[in-house]
Amino acid sequence: MTAESLLHIGDILGAHGLKGALIVFSHTRPAQAIAGYSCWWIGKTAATAKAYPVRRCWQHGKRMLAELEGVSDCDQAALFKKLKVWVPIDVVETDDDEYLWEELIGCRVIKEGTLEPLGTVTALEEYGAQDNLLVQTPDDAAEPGEWLIPFIEDVVTDVNLDDCVITVDLPEGMDVCFTPRS
């Protein structure tokens, strides 16, 4: 499995209990969807990740707990703390109107109608109500800086992954979501 073919879906926060369960922070939506993958690749990076069949995975409060094949006590489980959970990207299913964050990073963002370039998506951030695109303007822009654009239907009007272009319709007042670079 190559690093490029793996998708980061969670982080291991530590061990839970004497039988070697792991506390996992899930990046999937809903969080319980992480339980749907029968094999996780675990490592510090995708390149160093190794496959571990999932014996059991369940929700426990705000976190997920998981038991892996070959991990049977708290000492073994403790070795997984701060590692990342990956799955092969080809097993991840999305609806037509859903996108993986990894697919959006690097896309150009343009204003609807004018096709004026705003910049490039450098990250996505989750702020409870919705995800937000972090868009970096080009260094040679008239006003270099960063946009924080809500990834919602009213603002993001089109996502073209083939051309790696996201079209946005910024409502009046969105200039407060721009931070100039000093």
UniProtKB/TrEMBL annotation:
Q: Name one GO biological process term.
A: rRNA processing
Q: Which residues form the Ribosome maturation factor RimM PRC barrel domain?
A: 101-174
Key words, A-Z: Chaperone, Cytoplasm, Ribosome biogenesis, rRNA processing
* Domain RimM N-terminal span(s) in chain numbering: 9-90
Q: Name one GO molecular function term.
A: ribosome binding
**Pfam families, alphabetically?**
PRC_RimM, RimM
Where can this protein be found? Cytoplasm
Family annotation (InterPro entries): PRC_barrel-like_sf, PRC_RimM, RimM, RimM_N, RimM_N_sf, Transl_B-barrel_sf
- Please state the protein's primary subcellular location: cytoplasm
Q: Name one GO cellular component term.
A: ribosome
- PANTHER family given for it? RIBOSOME MATURATION FACTOR RIMM
What does it do? An accessory protein needed during the final step in the assembly of 30S ribosomal subunit, possibly for assembly of the head region. Essential for efficient processing of 16S rRNA. May be needed both before and after RbfA during the maturation of 16S rRNA. It has affinity for free ribosomal 30S subunits but not for 70S ribosomes.
Q: How does it assemble?
A: Binds ribosomal protein uS19.
Write out the domain note. Answer: The PRC barrel domain binds ribosomal protein uS19.
Family that this chain belongs to: Belongs to the RimM family.
State what protein this is by name.
Answer: Ribosome maturation factor RimM
- What is the organism of origin for this protein? Mariprofundus ferrooxydans PV-1
